[in-house]
Amino acid sequence: MNSFRFHLQKYHRGSKITCPACGRKACFTRYVDEEAEIHFPEHVGKCDHENRCGYHFSPKDFFNESPDAKLLLKSAINSHALPITIKPMPVISYIDPLIVEKSLSHYEINPLYIYLTSILGETKAKRLMERYQVGTSSK
Question: By C-alpha distance, which of 56, 57, 80, 60 is closest to 69?
């Protein structure tokens, strides 16, 4: 489904409680920890009545409000840290300069050159092709 550690509690009969803001019964869903290491207080959750009540106290708000819980979270994250794998650098490949030099001709069959000639004119198109070393290939 999703890979978030903290999410709203899945609905089942009796799982919703009274909203701490508006006081309505069975309309407040609490946040839970997927790893079951942190138990949030009763006021951390979201009210169903977004337009009228709009109460939403997220786990982020909770951790900003209580620094002790933030330290607990950091220690839990560090204990579950995955090892870092370093990828080897890819091998850089180059085209042989002689092949590049040979491809800098036969512009009359190059579709890009033909298009640029129709828009910019022959001298400007040839100058751009030479400046950016655009080659022509049979493939």
Answer: 60
pLDDT tens-digit series, residues 71-93: 666 655 555 555 556 677 788 88
Structure tokens at 74: 């950091």
Share of the chain above pLDDT 70, in %: 86
Taking 70 as the pLDDT cut, the residues of the chain under it are 1-2, 70-86
> Cα 63–55–60 angle (5° rounding)?
15
CB atoms under 10 Å from CB of 125, counted, come to: 21
Burial 15-50 (b: 16+ CB within 10 A, else e): ebeebbbeeeeebbbbbbeeeeebebeeebbbbeee
